[in-house]
Amino acid sequence: MFKQKLDNFKRVIYSLSRGLSWAAAGAVCLMVLLVCTNIVTRLFGQPVTGTYELVGFMLVVVICFALAYGAVTRCHTTVNILVRRFSQRTQAIIDSITGLVSIGLFALLAWQCILLAARLRQVGEVSPTLWLPMFPLLYGVAFCCIIVCLVLLIDFSESLTKAMRK
């Protein structure tokens, strides 16, 4: 019963992270389109206003929205020259510890982004050129960090299960 619920939860979180990754890919396409449009219109003396700001905002979207899927696919860099020499159980214990630390760091990042977004919303902070509010972007970063935490929590539970079995 618990295994089935965990599998359903895993499927939902992994699908959500895949969707966020597609949104990141869409933001990359929009960035390319915007930069190319800006280059062409600049030749005619009419550059796109706020290109630098919009590309910066989209870059945040690209990086943060792709984090969870990167955690799902484990495409991050790991150095396992030393760890792979240990037993499977010891490797699972090390994975559990690093997973727990990672969950803590991403949870802290999400919490601080939420606090900063609330503060920016309260004072009405906007971007300098286009006057776009900054707080929604930070709420998006916080949301992505929470999804990363959930992916890492799934990995942590799997590593802990491996450590307990062997």
Structure description:
There is one protein chain. The protein is an all-alpha fold and 166 residues long. The chain has one domain. Helices cover 80% and strands 0% of the residues. It has helices spanning 2-43, 51-73, 88-123, 135-165. It is elongated, with a radius of gyration of 20 Å. It starts with a helix and ends with a helix.
When the domains are counted, the total is 1
What proportion strand?
A: under 5%
How many strand segments? 0
- Structural category is mainly alpha
Helical amount among residues, as a percent range?
A: over 70%
Residue-averaged pLDDT: 91
- Terminal CA distance: 23 Å
- Poorly predicted spans: none
Helix and strand element order: HHHH
Using the alpha-carbon principal axes, give the shape.
elongated
In angstroms, what is the radius of gyration? 20 Å
**How many DSSP helices?**
4
Largest sheet data: none
Short synopsis of the structure:
This protein has helices at residues 2-43, 51-73, 88-123, 135-165.
What are the defining features of this structure?
single chain; 166 residues; mainly alpha; 4 helices; 0% strand
Task: Give the topology, please.
Elements: H1 2-43, H2 51-73, H3 88-123, H4 135-165
